[in-house]
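The instructor's notes for this session suggest beginning with a concrete chain rather than abstract definitions. Hand out the sequence below and ask the class to guess, before any prediction is shown, which regions might be ordered.
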Amino acid sequence: VYSTYLGPGSSAAVAADASGSAYVSASTTSTAWTAKPGVVQAKCAGQSCADAVALKINPNGNGLLYMTYFGGSGTETVGGLAVDQSGNAYITGSTTSTDLPTTSGAFQPAWAGSQTSQGQTGFVAKLNPDATKLVYATYLGGSTNDQAFGIAVDGSGNAYVAGETTSPDFPIVNAIQVGLANPTCIAYSGPPAGVPIGWTYCPSAGFLSVLNPAGAALIWSTFLGSASVYGALSQYRGP
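After discussion, reveal the predicted structure:
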C-alpha cells in the first residue's frame, strides 16, 4: 500500500488505529527530525540528543499528522508502543533521565531511590490524538535498574506494561509473585545441567504492571519469573 523511509532512529515500534493511520515510536540521537507545531516537545532535550520520537502517519503514507520528541537530559530507549480506540498513543521504554517531563498526578513523578547507583528506569507516556498534550507521563521502577520492553492497552484505556527489573522495591499491587528471583548472586561452576559455567545470576525478575487510564495508579503489578517479559497482550480488538 505504501513504503517509506523514516529516521534517523532505532528500536522502532509501530501500531495502527482503526482508520489506518500508523503510529511509530523510536529512539534517536538526531536533531534532524522536524516536529509539528504545537506538539508536546518540539526539540530534543539535553546537550546531547538521545530521546524518543513519536509520529503519526496518514493512511496513505504520504503525510505526517504529527511528530514529537519525548525525553529528558539523559537517554531514552523505546521498548513498545500501543494505540487505543480514541487515537491516544502509549509509549514505554527505559530512561536515564532524572528530569523526564512527568505530569501532575502521575503515579511516579520522580525516579525512585538514589540516582547515584542507578542505570535506568522504566517510563510510560500517553499522548493525546494530535500529540499536543501529555495525558500522562510517569516513571515506573524501583531503586536500582528497570527496563520496560512492551505495552498494550485495553478498551478501557488501562495500559499493560512488561519488562525486567533488578529492583527489590519495584512497585507491586495484588501480585502473584512478591519478590525477585535468585535472592543472592550465584556463580555457577557446574551443575545444574544447562547452566553455563562461570555465569553469575543475580536477583532479577520480569514484571507486568497495569496503569489506570489517568496514569495515576497501578491497578495491579507483579514480579514475574526470573528474566524479562517482552510483550503484553490486551483484550482490545477494535471498536
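Then share the key points. The longest strand covers residues 76-83. The radius of gyration is 18 Å.
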